[in-house]
Amino acid sequence: MATNLEETLIAVWRQVLVEDAKTVALGGQSYIVRHTSRSKLREVDFRFENQMLRGLEQNPSTDSRWAELARAGKKVMQFLDSGRYVANVVDGEVNFYGRK
Q1: Which of 14, 33, 54, 97 lies 20 to 30 Å from 4, alpha-carbon distance?
Q2: For 51-80, b where at least 16 C-beta lie within 10 A, e where not — what string?
Q3: Inter-CA distances, 17 with 8, 49, 100, Å
Q4: Main-chain phi, psi angles of 63, to 5 degrees
Q5: pLDDT one-digit tens code per residue, 11-58
């Protein structure tokens, strides 16, 4: 069971992008994996402690460095809190935005 935010993000990434799960299981709860309407990217809304987060598969068609990694075959998922990007996971490694 994931105990901190980093482990939780990796667990979500693994279930969605590696295992291709239709639902994500976290802490006894189940969250449905949906597809975005326009790009058909996988996304899932889930709760970590007292906040709602969204995991969103990286769109490989954009011009970001993360999209370049996705085009190269890496599995990239972005994580948002209230519409703001807070972290991403690339092939199982967490990168937090705004943290040193």
Answers
A1: 33
A2: eebbbbbbbbeeeeebeebbeeebbbbbbb
A3: 14, 23, 27
A4: -100, 15
A5: 999 999 999 999 999 989 999 999 999 889 999 999 999 899 999 999
